[in-house]
Specification:
- By secondary structure, the protein is mostly helical.
- It has one domain: Up-down Bundle (Four Helix Bundle (Hemerythrin (Met), subunit A)), CATH 1.20.120.
- The chain contains five helices and no strands.
- The longest helix has 34 residues, at 121-154.
- The protein is elongated, with a radius of gyration of 19 Å.
- The protein starts with 9 loop residues before the first helix and ends in a 7-residue tail after the last helix.
């Protein structure tokens, strides 16, 4: 990207995207941590309050993940990676496939939470376990996406070092 002064500011753009990605990932970690706190919440005999709070947290998680998907696809890091490092296009595509699968899995968990009866402790317990596994998978994927972006920005061209 060149400005009217003729100087390329591609590095500035990449740095700004990197800062936003870092912020968005911190927010994601906070939402995931809050969701884990709800999952660990020990209730007495009723799961009504826990179920209600968990539904709210999972909706927040889904909303933030949707935001991250939009940011990465439209003017975000995925295009920056493929534009600056075309040899990484397959990694970006693979990352997108994993991300989309995780999003679909989360949508299923949201439906499961919406459908579970507050009296069905066994089904609720299973959903909570599935959600914990999902949070682990999200954390792993977020780490891989962040590493992919950082490699694309800071990796030297044409060499192994």
């Amino acid at each position: 990207m060149h400005t009217s002064d003729g100087i390329s500011h591609r590095g500035d753009h990449a740095d700004e995207i990197a800062r936003q990605l870092q912020l968005e990932l911190v927010l994601l970690v906070n939402i995931k941590d809050a969701t884990r706190m709800v999952l660990e919440w020990k209730t007495d005999s009723s799961i009504v309050r826990k179920l209600s709070t968990l539904r709210t947290m999972v909706q927040s998680l889904e909303g933030h993940l949707s935001r991250l998907r939009v940011l990465s696809e439209y003017g975000g890091y995925m295009h920056l990676v493929t534009d600056s490092k075309p040899h990484m296009a397959n990694e970006v595509t693979a990352s997108r496939v994993v991300r989309d699968r995780l999003h679909t899995d989360l949508e299923k968990l949201i439906v499961d939470l919406d459908m579970v009866e507050s009296t069905d402790k066994l089904a609720f317990s299973r959903i909570c376990g599935d959600l914990k596994d999902h949070l682990d998978a999200l954390a792993e994927h977020a780490d891989k996406e962040k590493a992919l972006f950082l490699r694309s920005v800071y990796e030297e061209e044409g060499g192994s070092g």
